[in-house]
Amino acid sequence: NAGVMQNPRHLVRRRGQEARLRCSPMKGHSHVYWYRQLPEEGLKFMVYLQKENIIDESGMPKERFSAEFPKEGPSILRIQQVVRGDSAAYFCASSSMDPRPGNTIYFGEGSWLTVV
Amino acid sequence: ILNVEQSPQSLHVQEGDSTNFTCSFPSSNFYALHWYRWETAKSPEALFVMTLNGDEKKKGRISATLNTKEGYSYLYIKGSQPEDSATYLCAFLYGNNRLAFGKGNQVVVIP
Q1: Chain A residue with minimal CA distance to B35?
Q2: Alpha-carbon dihedral of residues B35, B39, B41, B45, nearest 10 degrees?
Q3: B14, B15, B23: which is closest to B88 by C-alpha?
């Protein structure tokens, strides 16, 4: 049973370009989360999605960042016009149900974005 | 701003010794506390999800306790082995779907 799959694992973008990070949740999981780890910081929540719906995007920067989780295909985190400060590790996670009852949230290996 | 603190930040342990470290979190509006084990270049591995005050969970030589009233959790490693070397993350579930992570306890087991 494959875990949470993220690609690319490493991505280099020049300032002003777009970055697209993809995440395939674990089989049977319909809840997807994106987290970001900036250098010297812990993981920070960005966005929570269920199929075709953004449930909570309170942790996502208001500009240049967007996320989707279409009916078919992986979840995409899109960063437009990247700046050096976007350089970070982006982690995707998934769960089978709402995490409130204490269900496990499974993480992928992360996508490392470097903006040059 | 939610504050999840883990201490000590890093520790070296002799192989065979037992060790423990602490995660402190807000004691109000508690839903769950998650522990993960994270090795470099791998995905964080889910260890425990703890929901009830007084919870104790065990997985092999690793165990955890939870005190929601005072806002702390302990993680214990019994008889440390080199393969236990990793960063141990705790995360507090808040707002019903968001995890607030600590910066981790980095454990190095010395053979």
Answers
A1: A104
A2: -30
A3: B23
Residues 6+ apart with CB under 8 A from B96: A98, A99, A100, B31
Of B43, B51, B98, the CB nearest to A56: B98
pLDDT in tens, A75-107: 999 999 999 999 999 999 999 987 777 899 999
pLDDT tens, A3-39?
A: 999 999 999 999 999 999 999 999 999 999 999 999 8
The answer for residues whose C-beta is within 8 angstroms of residue B4's C-beta and 6 or more apart is A42, B23, B24, B25, B90, B91, B92, B100, B101, B102
| CA separation for the pair B78, A70 (Å, rounded) | 45
Q: How far is A15 from chain B (nearest CA, A)?
A: 25
